[in-house]
Amino acid sequence: MQGFPTEMTARMKALERENRELRQANEILRKAAAYFAKGELDRPFKMIAFIDDHRGDYGIEPICRVLPIAPSTYHARAAQHHDPSRLSLRAKRDLALKPEITRVFAENFAVYGVRKVWRQLKREGFDVARCTIERLMRETGLNGAIRGRPFRTTISDKAAPGDVVIGPTGAVKVMVATRPVDFRNYVERLIMRSPQRQLLAACGI
Known about the structure:
Blueprint (H helix, E strand, L loop, with lengths): L5 H30 L8 H15 L1 H7 L4 H12 L6 H19 L6 H10 L6 H11 L21 E4 L8 E4 L5 H10 L2 H8 L3
Antiparallel strand pairs: 1-2
């Protein structure tokens, strides 16, 4: 840039680059806010699906800098997805058990809970722990029927504030809300409070 000292020119270029990166991070966060349901940002398989859907627009590493997932983790999970032989023994067993759990659940009119599904699989010769059935049913969204009124151990206080933690790598903030969390609004506030955004605002950019 003519008329500016070299040091100032370099500083302005660095700020422009940071501004571009910040705009891209803002866009990724807004799309993530629309993509993830509240509380799902810590689920690796959801983040991997998000990266797969948007890697053509932003690239893998820029997305990983915004979301709490390392590029190496994404590549490892992607390789396992394309080549199941790379999966751990537990993951392979989970893949084999999930269809059986779904079958038993469907054959019994979708009313069996964890205990009955587990006992049925044990009768069929599957050597599996009850806690494993509970975890896999939770992952697949299967819930048995509950007799009578649902049993509640806690009645939440709607007026009490609560903490919401999004995750590491710059997107980590704890916000105390006095009403149900608007995830999209939270992400936008998080963007505006970021150190990069404050630096650019101070420089008038």
